[in-house]
Write a structure and sequence with these properties.
single chain, alpha+beta, seven-stranded mixed sheet, three-stranded antiparallel sheet
Length: about 290
């Protein structure tokens, strides 16, 4: 390990570590190789006091491979620099509320994301944490009967479904897939919901994990109610201590997470207070993260 890098596993949880002693803006090749190995082991790395610019964040993220999303704000602050009015009908706020449910990124796309680099720029006085849940440990905690039941099962994944289910709808257009107003944001062009196994084996570590979250629905061979009970039960059982960690952000924090084995969610905060985060999404491998169409 690079001499200056210090790794402190997060207490009272099955995953994650705080990494200090390095600067992401000028980490060298050997240092990045150490960081990458540490990331595969812990799945979530928290790096305080990095204070990356957007350009520095993108440059660093490219070291993991291609990018699915170069950089985008996750924020309740408008382009004019003002906090968006707290309007229940505001479409951006509906999306932010949707992010408060456990999910993995881009499972609704043909190729699921590999991971993400996330940075904090402005944080509220309270609330607004981000939570992660370890789907490797969640799978390992299942009894043999449930593991056998999940073997060979898959679920469809759709952001149309998840947005409609929680009533975070972005337009009034009719969408037959959602049975109501259509989602028109990122991923809206995917009209055939990808089918993904409920148990996923990590392409680099080989560890099995649950592949679930709010975008998952419609297990083939089950009626709607049975599928919903199983998927909801899996999330409820998986996303509890010691398999969860919620990070209280400070400006300048950077976090890197492995989307192939973790779920995540935002926590609520007072939308009258600004919260400005920047998200870079790491592109998944077109073979290992590909899902068949419905």
């Amino acid at each position: 390990m690079t001499a200056s890098m210090q790794v402190r596993p997060l207490p009272d949880t099955t995953f994650g570590a705080v990494v200090t002693g390095i600067s992401l803006r000028d980490i060298d090749a050997a240092g990045f190789a150490d960081l990458y190995r540490t990331w595969l082991e812990h799945a979530l790395l928290v790096l305080p006091d990095q204070h990356l610019t957007n350009d520095e964040q993108v440059k660093f993220a490219r070291r993991f491979g291609g990018l699915e999303i170069e950089i985008t704000p996750i924020s309740n602050v408008g382009r004019n620099g003002q906090v968006r009015p707290v309007d229940p009908g505001d479409q951006v706020l509906k999306v932010l509320k949707g992010n408060q449910y456990w999910h993995a990124d881009s499972t609704y796309m043909p190729v699921q994301a590999k991971g993400a680099v996330f940075t904090a720029h402005v944080v509220p006085k309270s609330g607004g944490e981000t939570g992660w849940a370890d789907m490797r440990a969640a799978y390992a905690a299942l009894d043999d009967e449930m593991k056998a039941r999940l073997e060979g099962l898959s679920a469809h994944h759709s952001i149309h479904y998840s947005q409609a289910k929680m009533e975070a709808l972005l337009t009034r257009e009719h969408d037959p897939m959602a049975g109501g107003p259509a989602y028109t944001g990122y991923g809206a062009a995917v009209t055939e919901a990808p089918l993904r196994p409920l148990v996923k084996r990590h392409p680099e570590t080989g560890r099995p994990s649950l592949n679930i979250g709010r975008h998952a629905y419609g297990i083939p061979g089950m009626d709607e109610a049975e599928s919903e009970r199983l998927l909801t039960g899996l999330i409820e059982d998986a996303c509890r201590p010691p398999r969860v960690y919620h990070h209280q952000w400070a400006p300048g924090d950077a976090v890197i997470w492995d989307n192939r084995c973790l779920l995540h969610r935002a926590c609520a905060w007072d939308f009258a207070e600004p919260r400005v985060m920047y998200h870079t999404r790491l592109a998944g491998h077109p073979v290992t993260e590909y899902a068949s169409a419905a």
